[in-house]
Amino acid sequence: MKQRLCICGGGNLGQVIAGYISAKGKATVSVLTRRPNEWKNDLKTLLPEGIELTGHLEVVSSNPAIALKDANIVLFCLPGNANREELLKIKPFVTPEMYVGCVFASSGFFFEAMNILDANIPLWGFQRVPFISRIEKYGERARLMGYKSNYNIAVEHSENKEDFRKTIEELFERPTFLLTNYYEATFTNSNPLLHTSRLYSLFKDWKEGIYYDHDFLFYEEWTTEAAEILAAMDNELFAILDKLPVRQGYLTPILEYYESTTPEQMAIKIRSLDGLKGISSPMIETPQGWIPDLGSRYFHEEFEYSLKYIYEKGKELNISMPTIEKVFLWGQGMIKRKK
């Protein structure tokens, strides 16, 4: 049976996944977006190998009743702060036949979905994003900059988890493994630690009146200090995981993930990754120079959602986590300045 996929969100990942899946012809694809008039139904996706795919979207709409009609898979490609509103918007149109999921579960998707949707609605989520993606022309053309070698997903509220795993494996064309539970998809050492450690190292001394002479490259200028903070946060995360019902080894320690034995080696490795090159930091240019963009997704999604869940679980379990606590409270303070 041909799958029917509805993508919720029109950002980088949403556009690339919609273009890629529709071009492969294994599913019909619809998109639920606030800006449907800016989309073309024929969507182009440039692959890392230089091949350009063209996929046809069945529906692009801002109306969930239209976009979700007959869908059997729903995939949120939204920042964490948008999940709750989107879940409330689609709730009247979701049925038990739909698997509602998120492209990156560490943003707290499962916590929100379990609170909002009925208990008979199957839920699922990726542990890490499947692609590195960048829009070149909104609603028309995007670039798939890098693949993961395999995917881990969590599935809840379903008796057919293995069948669904096979479906995702077929759609995304990579080996896909089933996690034990949603904790294993939610508590990761990717963006929640990666982004926040880098932001802290960049802007921990920033205050009003301080300006920088350029917009830092987020990964290509990664420092040993940022890597040391990341490694310390990773150690504290694993102390939290030791107290949770998760499998030993489900998550690779961050140094091992980056094929390193020291933070200095990890910093060199991160700087060298082709798929992460050219990505700037969340900053705003002013007449006086560059300052951090406190309203950016980097700050709000990671500190108000992703890292927040790790921090709160650590507190609940009475785990010592001085680095996570320092970085999290600093980030919360920075966001309050914007408000």
Task: Please tell me about this protein's structure.
The protein has 339 residues and is an alpha/beta fold. Helix content is 40%, strand content 20%. The chain has 12 helices and 14 strands. It has an 8-stranded mixed beta sheet with strand order 5-2-1-6-7-8-11-12, sandwiched between helices. Strands 4-3-10-9 form a 4-stranded mixed beta sheet, with helices on one face. A two-stranded antiparallel ribbon has the order 13-14. Strand 3 (42-46) and strand 4 (52-56) form a beta hairpin. Helix 3 runs parallel beside helix 4 and helix 7 (191-203) packs across helix 11 (297-316). The longest helix has 20 residues, at 297-316. The relative contact order is 0.11.
